[in-house]
Design goal:
mainly beta, 0% helix, four-stranded antiparallel sheet, 118 residues, seven-stranded mixed sheet
Length: 118
């Protein structure tokens, strides 16, 4: 069955860094768009970063440009989100999302909490 398992969240001070990972299984990871989303309490879900299967198309929300980097390792079926210069406004639950190029799949992980606070 399809699984997306996020890890790497935690509590970090403002200005700090975290690297999130999302391990995928149960579908063709190498032929899937991968995205990171986040949702803070009382706020709408926000698309944070997108990467295509070949890693030659990446997009970021304006709020994270220059601070976050999305990457993937197709051999390990894992997508990453390197987060630098973290701010309190980055506090949210971060979710991994996969959309395979074929079919109608739209898969989500369970989320990993990121809290930025002094």
């Amino acid at each position: 069955q399809v699984q997306l398992v996020e890890s790497g969240g935690g509590l970090v001070q403002p200005g700090g860094s975290l690297k999130l990972s999302c391990a995928a299984s149960g579908f063709t990871f190498s032929r899937s768009f991968m995205r990171w989303y986040r949702q803070a309490p009382g706020k709408e879900r926000e698309q944070v970063a997108t990467i295509n299967s070949a890693s030659n198309y990446v997009r970021y929300a304006d709020s994270v440009k220059g601070r976050f980097t999305i990457s993937r390792d197709n051999a390990k079926a894992t997508v990453y989100l390197q987060m630098n210069g973290l701010k309190p406004d980055d506090t949210a639950m971060y979710y991994c999302n996969a959309v395979p190029l074929e079919g109608s799949g739209d898969y989500w992980g369970q989320g990993t909490q990121v809290t930025v606070s002094s």
